[in-house]
């Protein structure tokens, strides 16, 4: 038996006992293709290393498992050959087979080397290489020609070449003959097994046929009959379902036509449930059912939306007509914001809720309520705008037909240039302030009526959604909310917008009985969806009312904006009427809307600022004109100005310093004072109209004159011994026209500050500006002698300076009170810088007053120096002539006369403290200047000394009589007294 190496394992196996599966497959393939196994085995191209066709034994030799090794002997023990006997016995047989195979292989290889290889080399040497080419083809012309036509010798040796090749092939086949016969034996075994298998298959088929006939056939027939019965029952149910759907569609059309939305929704829920299930799948007759159902649902939603709009908006239109008719009948409206707030009583509220409830439930079931609320918001907004515009047009016909107010300037009426009917904006601008306020009141009432209706709708929806606890429809509302939430979620998922509840898709998770657990949905998820759905409804509900308020704010702001060029020019009270009713409107609407209206607040605030700016500019211009025309003559203070000062700055003062007239003065409110003296020109009427004098005088020619006597004469001509003064804090002040105008303007600024609280900082800035301007301009006109150029004064007298000092002192005195009053409304963040500004202005007034007093002292010093410059010539004449006159000299009498005149003027005008401060400086100047002048003279004769002594005594007598706070004895003692004591002791003793 031959042993061949196994190409896969490298082991040597017995060729007679091994069989490979692929050998059987190769034999079967060879038989199927009608090929001889001998031709396969005798293939000369098979290499010696190709061992795939070698047969293998069906039972491979089992390699014995090695017996477990004995424990290793301890170190120092002896081993013998008998110890390895079990191991050698275990692999002796395989080793013997391996040795035989190895010996046979060597002999075969040796034979091949000696015979086969030499013969093959000789074969290749004898046969031309042309025949061994891979591309050898006799069909090829060149090959055929080289083999047959051109080489006859090759043709003759062709048979010999074939013999040589055949000899070598036979030799190769002989070397493999043993494998060939073994393969034939295996093939015969395979054929016998195939025959056995076919026989068993025939027996099995016969057994199956008998079983099918006797057992399976009847059971299968029974099963077929049961299936047929089930199909017939399903067909009957389908037919019943078709009948039901047809009837439901007919009923749905009738319910929609009769506007029975609740019943129609019940039917649509059933049909939608059928569509979402498998009952109608495959029925061609209902292929358009979903579209028809969607059309019906759209119709139901349209009916519900229309009814909702009719109840919530359209029925409110009658209120506009009633208000407009009422206004036309009375042509005036008295309103006090909250007093005319439109509200429904309890019965009306209950009826309104009962009417709105079924439509809200229907819209909840279809998940259309958020969308309808958005439509309601847009419609409500448009209706609000239309109502305001229509009302304005109707009311303007009445208001424009009324005669204009006498205070309204006709030139401000705006008309179209074409001579036709004026536009709505121009007619609004042409309204007098009172008529415009009446128009705003009417609009206020109309807006309140609409917002009250919208607020009631909002409250009703909130009541239905959140507070319908013990009501009979509470369960229906809860089920409707659950249905709508699921429907909105389904629509959102279909559109890829999970968080939006804006579209409707009929619920597939709920039945007609609103059971929210029939499909096994998670309770937590459904509760979350319901909360989101409720939140969406409540948000849209709130947005609708706020949108209506915002629309009303926009229209109101637009109406105010039309008259923006006019409002800054109004009087304070006229503007306040508009401002206050706007504030009431903002408060009332924001209370309903629940949010701040920034547009209208910005409009009224900007107009208020424009009003303050315009009023300030006009007052600045007017004050400049009054100051330029001021003749700085004292005037009587009217009672209204004392009332202003008393009400503003002296609320607790009971005396005004007006003698018998004090008891008649009572503290009145600022508004009444402003109303009674709203036209400052009334004050100007008491002042003679002064024209500008083109003749200019020297600004430095400031001297005393007889102005005081002329003022006294004017006072007596007016029938009063003393002019009425302005009292503050128990102190009276002489006033001129511009000072009273400043007081009036300051009171108006305080009124603006108290009325326009949001602009308090701006008002304080304007007060600081006007105080700065008045102080600066007064200083330029009096101290700077500018009045001699602009108002025609020939000179600036001490009377002018004293009156100016009184006005400046009064203003300086009331500045702290003005600051206290104004800063009550100023925000804390602005107080720091504004207080610094006001304090700086007060300091400027104090400096100005001190400069006026210094100017009075300077005037007296200049007059003294003028008289003292002639003293040397006078003394020289005394030395040459005899003394015939016992009276003081003329220069001494002139000095005392002018000092007395200044004393009388200042004592009648200035306060005692100021007079004492001024004359204390005058006394010091007199002592120093006169003593210095006399010390430089030379008294050469006795009569000159006597005359000088007489003049000094006369001058000292005048100095002693001057008011001063000196504590010396004698009063006003100084350098002149020392000069007299040092140089005229003898004359004093005589």
What does this structure look like?
This protein is mostly helical. The chain is built from 33 helices and 4 strands. Helices cover about 70% and strands about 0% of the residues. The strands form 2 sheets. The protein has a two-stranded antiparallel ribbon. A hairpin with a 2-residue loop joins strand 3 and strand 4 (about 730-735). The radius of gyration is 65 Å and the shape is elongated.
Gist of the model:
This protein has 990 residues and is an all-alpha fold. The protein is built from 33 helices and four strands. This is Vacuolar protein sorting-associated protein 54, chloroplastic.
* Portion in helices: 55-70%
Strand order of the largest sheet: 1-2
Structural class comes to mainly alpha
Number of strands: 4
Query: What share of the residues does DSSP label as strand, in percent?
Result: under 5%
Number of helices: 33
What profile does the largest beta sheet have?
2 strands, antiparallel
The geometry reads as elongated
Work out the radius of gyration: 65 Å
Low-confidence stretches: 1-67, 335-340, 404-421, 497-522, 652-720
First-residue to last-residue Cα separation: 193 Å
Nearest-integer average pLDDT: 74
Give a topology summary.
Elements: E1 3-5, E2 12-14, H1 21-32, H2 37-41, H3 85-126, H4 141-149, H5 152-156, H6 158-175, H7 177-257, H8 261-276, H9 289-312, H10 317-330, H11 346-365, H12 369-401, H13 424-430, H14 433-466, H15 474-495, H16 523-562, H17 572-593, H18 598-629, H19 639-649, H20 670-676, H21 681-684, H22 707-717, E3 726-728, E4 731-733, H23 737-755, H24 760-783, H25 787-790, H26 798-822, H27 828-868, H28 871-880, H29 890-909, H30 912-935, H31 942-961, H32 975-983, H33 985-989
Antiparallel strand pairs: 1-2, 3-4
Helix pairs in contact: 3-6, 7-8, 8-9, 9-11, 10-12, 10-14, 11-14, 11-15, 12-14, 12-16, 14-16, 14-17, 15-16, 16-17, 16-18, 17-18, 18-23, 18-24, 19-20, 19-23, 23-24, 23-26, 24-26, 24-27, 26-27, 26-29, 27-29, 27-30, 28-31, 29-31, 30-32
